[in-house]
Amino acid sequence: MNLRAVTALIALVIALAGTVWLGRGNGDIQPAAPVPKQTDPSDDRPKISPTGPYPKAVVDTPLYNFGSMAVGQSLSHNFILKNEGEVPLEVQKGATTCKCTLSEMKENMVAPGESIKIELTWTPKSPQQNFGQTATIYTNDPKNQELKLQIEGTANNLIAFTGDFEGSPHWSLPTMSTTDPVSFSGKIHTKYLDEFKILGIESSKPGLTSKFRPLTAEELKEADTKSGYTIEVTADPEQFPLGGFTERLTVKTDIPHDLSPPGTEEKHDHPEGHDHKHDHEHATPEGPRTFVIQVSGNHTGPIRIVPTYGVHWNPNTMILNLGEFPAKEGKTVTLSMFVEGTEHSLEIVDQEIAPDFLEFELKKDDKFESKTKQRYELKFAVPAEMSPVSFGRTNLAKVKLQTNHPNAKEIEFRVQFISL
Predict the structure, then answer these.
(1) pLDDT (0 to 100) of residue 294
(2) What's the domain of life for this entry (predicted)?
(3) Whole-angstrom Cα distance, residue 195 to residue 229?
(4) What pLDDT, on the 0 to 100 scale, is given for residue 165?
(5) Does the pLDDT at position 13 exceed 70?
(6) Which residues contact 187 (CB under 8 A, 6 or more apart)?
(7) Is the previous residue joined to 355 through a cis bond, with omega within 30 degrees of 0?
(8) Average of per-residue pLDDT across 84-103
(9) What percent of the chain has pLDDT over 90?
(10) Using one digit for the tens of pLDDT, what is the confidence trace for 151-207?
(11) In DSSP terms, which residues pair with 92 in a beta bridge?
């Protein structure tokens, strides 16, 4: 047998062996598992006819602008959806960011030539310069399988105030420099309610009083509003210590928290796993609304304080800022205080200093000559070799004095510093 024949025989044997091995292995291979059919979200939508005829979904104006709304106020708009096609139009509500209601119809069908109302309702929860909400309507119109209906507008606070800043009114009183009371008049009004009542006003301090009256027709026109009041706030200097202050007026009204008409509560289709506890935490409060007005002022009384060069003193808040300094070195500053309204020397009847390591000294300048004023030196000191400490805006150090001056019975200095 020649070499070529031997080679052919060996190749034939290898091929037969491979065939046998492959035949045995096929019995061990498991058939592939069938791939599950993926669910198409469009399976639940209205079906489009493959041949026609077709319906025709028509909404003349798919966008509506509410204009200006009040926070908490519910407004609704009806969109008219008409079927101008040859066969019934099937409609189905899809995703929505606001309350969407379809008018009643038989099996979600709109006959040719007929129409339905689609009501969108929105209740803004916070002021928004521009808001937009959308509802999607699915149909079996091949040219309008998804109709987008939109509402938009502007949301403002229900009540407006004089000195309003982002919904937090702040009124400033004139400086109290004598024993005469000082007053400020501000307005509270709304362009969304035909009327409302102020049930009462509470003050955080006895020396701060108020009275109110309805705005006149002329004042309402001038403010471009529907209803409102003028509130006059008066502060009695005898009830306030010297220095700056901020107090509160709480205005109680008959305005309900929920301005939505019955049956117009905002609703959403919540997905599975939605946190209903979160909804409960943001539920509308019960009872009528109250509003807080911050009232600030400065009582200088018969004293005037002048800092020495480089000393940071705020006369409106009576805060002395010592800045930052090494704890090992400490810090000492001196202020000049001029006092009027008494012939007697200013005496400290009682004092309260916190923290107790803060040093304070009041000394009369006997060389100062004036028929109406007296001059005193005020010295504030943080001793050297103290441990580093910080007294900032939220934990100011203070020196509170009780004096014999008839119009400056209480003087309070506040001190800010950081020792490193």
Answers:
(1) 94
(2) Bacteria
(3) 10
(4) 67
(5) no
(6) 160, 161, 162, 215, 219, 223, 228, 229, 230, 231
(7) yes
(8) 90
(9) 59
(10) 999 998 899 998 876 667 999 999 888 889 999 999 999 999 999 999 999 999 999
(11) 138
pLDDT of res. 143: 93
Structure token digits, residue 147: 């109709």
Sheet containing strand 243-256, edge to edge, reads 170-172, 288-299, 243-256, 198-203
Confidence grade of residue 42 (pLDDT, cut at 50, 70, 90): low
CA dihedral 348, 350, 353, 357 (to 10 degrees): 80
| 236/210 Cα distance (integer angstroms) | 11
Which tokens in the block code for residue 391?
A: 């007294």
- Give the pLDDT confidence score for residue 4 in this predicted structure: 52
Residues in the chain: 420
Phi, psi values for residue 143, rounded to 5°? -90, -10
114-142 average pLDDT score: 92
Poorest-pLDDT segment among 14-18, 21-25, 415-419? 21-25
Structural domains present in the chain: 43-156 (2.60.40.10), 160-258+282-299 (2.60.40.10), 303-419 (2.60.40.10)
Cα gap 293→278, rounded to integer Å: 29
How far apart are the C-alpha atoms of 97 and 123, rounded to whole Å?
A: 11
In contact, 137 and 118? CB cutoff 8 Å: yes
Tell me the β-bridge partners of 314. Answer: 319
CA–CA dist 245, 261 (Å, integer)? 42
The radius of gyration computed from the CA coordinates of the chain, to the nearest angstrom, equals 40
Tokens encoding 152? 């938009």
Q: Rounded to an integer, what distance in angstroms lies between the CA atom of residue 234 and that of residue 40?
A: 69
CB 352, CB 397: distance < 8 Å: no
Residue 179 in tokens = 């024993």
Cβ-contact 215, 229 below 8 angstroms = yes
Beta-carbon count within 10 A of 237 CB: 21
SS3 49: coil
For the chain, the average pLDDT equals 84
CA distance 363 to 378: 7
* H runs (alpha helix) in 272-394: 276-281
Q: Residue 70's closest CA among 163, 196, 200, 217?
A: 196
